[in-house]
Amino acid sequence: MIIARRNLIVGAGGLLLAGCDKVAALPQARKILFAGEDMHRGLQRALMDRGALAPEFTPEQMSPIFRANGTRDPGTPAYAAMVANEFADYRLRIGGLVDRPLSLSLTQLASMPARKQITRHDCVEGWSAIGAWQGPMLGTVLKAAGMRNTARYVVFTCADLYNGQPYYESIDTIDAFHPQTILALKMNGSRLTVPHGAPVRLRVERQLGYKHAKYVTGIDAVENLANIGKGKGGYWEDNVDYDWYAGI
To answer: From CA 130, how far away is CA 59, in angstroms rounded?
Structure first.
């Protein structure tokens, strides 16, 4: 019987709370514990069609309340200035392994073909909510920038700061070009609010909520994650040992 990923996470957490945290702190033990992530990712890739869609829902199934999690307002002077002028000066930078680096305004992003989807957000903390999202597919933006074949990952830099540094997250190119992976500009039919990541947030519907970076300001195509943060590809992965691949 295949054990559900969430049950596996909860079970592992229980072991740590029971006293295994000292073991997990040992380099060799950590290597064994987190080697399972690569196995999980490989197994899920093998069993699932790369283009398989996450479940989508009807408007009647949308949650009456969709809580905001993580940063609710970056609170920096630069972000406050963007909020004050309704993001008129916002630019999304696209760089790294691309032939045509871009700097896109919200108007330019909104002019791209948009995808609308009603999906369930599953948080690693155990709650979920169903909401409607709208924005251009990430793949459309990457193609416009001419992403090179040598790129294997896409890294997101955000306006919110953790320990004085911009928040960051990453996905591989398989998920980057998935049709449900979008740069959301709207939520539930209205422009994104500040608590939910205005003006642009990532929606990568086949992964847990912490992968859905908010307040996105930059996107870089890279060959590997060695030079991203501490080398695991995301803030929570680097600092709290969350799995880099959070497939559901």
So the answer is: 9
Residue 87 · residue 199 · CB < 8 Å:
yes
Distance CA(4)–CA(93), nearest Å, equals: 37
Distance CA 121, CA 127 (A): 8
What's the half-sphere exposure (Cβ side, CA atoms, 13 Å) at 187? 24
Q: Name the residue among 46, 45, 75, 227 with its Cα closest to residue 153.
A: 227
Amino acid occupying residue 32? I
d(CA 152, CA 96): 11
Backbone torsions φ then ψ of 228, nearest 5 degrees: -100, 115
CA distances to 47, 141, 238, 247 from 230, in Å? 30, 27, 6, 21
- For the chain, give the number of residues: 248
Q: How far apart are the first and last CA of the chain?
A: 17
Query: pLDDT (tens digit, 9 = 90+) per residue, 110-167?
Result: 999 999 999 999 999 999 999 999 999 999 999 999 999 999 999 999 999 999 999 9
pTM, rounded to two decimals: 0.82
Asked if the bond preceding 77 is cis, omega within 30° of 0, the reply is no
Place of tokens 């195509």: 221
Query: From CA 136, how far away is CA 203, in angstroms rounded?
Result: 11
Q: Rounded to an integer, what distance in angstroms lies between the CA atom of residue 113 and that of residue 202?
A: 16
Dmax over CA atoms of the chain, in Å, equals 54
> What is the spatial distance between Cα 236 and Cα 134, in angstroms, rounded to a whole number?
26
